[in-house]
């Protein structure tokens, strides 16, 4: 019989709103506790500084943190794979209170709902072909096979090659199958027994700007440049998904001499702010979230 907890607490919100500290405080009052990080870029082991992974060397007794630093930089990890990973982990820690934390909204949604498209498999030959196309060509390809889907994409997705490729992949799959793709439930999961409680954290724009700027500078001080240099040496193929990580792309430009350190800080900060805005737009559409303001 598959194990399924009675309650899972999800702590979400835009970047730099204090989600990690908040969830650790919650976990301390609910020991033993398992915290599953759901930030997709924190999965990668080679960028702990740039991605802001937590220091697990001094975790409070009774708290276990998973979901960070377990993936090689040339590996891909789909939402479907994360869903399975999540339920496998909570099965391993059956006596623990379960918390999920992060800002990757679709990953969090995948553990609380069955999203139809996440079980559509990757098409490697198609991806290899699409990876050689320009952004404009990818946009035209999606328009050709599913104009309705293209028109539903937001501005960020329209200019994101990785998301365009996935949209083309899904559209191609659906076009090739006569019967509509039917969602499959995660094998490790028993939905009926689980209650999900969503907690959202937010800050004022002024506070967010200040905190993100300070965090970017701190990560540079901690060795973000050296970290990305190591990544470039170990994995020179800059088409890998890890190179689209906010911070990695900007530090790469700095290493190449394309921008100054001041420009690095400004560009990285602006990208984080833009990302936070996109996150908030997505989270605001989730009515199940109870919001807490983390200061003005």
Structure in words:
The chain is of the alpha/beta class. It has three domains: 7-116 and 184-203 and 284-293, P-loop containing nucleotide triphosphate hydrolases (Rossmann fold, 3-Layer(aba) Sandwich); 122-176; 205-279, Orthogonal Bundle (Helix Hairpins), CATH 1.10.287. It has helices at 19-28, 48-51, 79-92, 105-112, 124-130, 135-145, 147-152, 155-158, 161-176, 205-222, 224-234, 248-255, 261-283, and strands spanning 7-12, 33-37, 63-66, 97-102, 195-202, 289-293. It has a six-stranded parallel sheet with strand order 3-2-4-1-5-6, sandwiched between helices. Helix 2 (48-51) links the parallel strand 2 (33-37) and strand 3 (63-66).
**Integer tally of domains:** 3
Please indicate the percent range of residues in DSSP E strands (runs of 2 or more). Answer: 5-15%
Proportion in helices: 40-55%
Shape type: globular
Helix/sheet category: alpha/beta
Q: How does the major sheet shape up?
A: 6 strands, parallel
Low-confidence region ranges? none
CATH architecture of the largest domain: 3-Layer(aba) Sandwich
- In the sheet with the most strands, the strands line up as 3-2-4-1-5-6
CATH H-tier superfamily of the largest domain: P-loop containing nucleotide triphosphate hydrolases
Report mean pLDDT, rounded to a whole number.
89
Please report the total strand number as a whole number. Answer: 6
- Report the CATH C-level class of the largest domain: Alpha Beta
Q: According to CATH, what is the topology of the largest domain?
A: Rossmann fold
Radius of gyration: 20 Å
End-to-end CA span = 48 Å
Count of separate DSSP helical elements: 13
- What is the H/E order? EHEHEHEHHHHHHEHHHHE
Pfam families: IPPT
Region (Interaction with substrate tRNA): 39-42
InterPro entries: Dimethylallyltransferase, IPT, P-loop_NTPase
Organism: Candidatus Collierbacteria bacterium RIFOXYD1_FULL_40_9
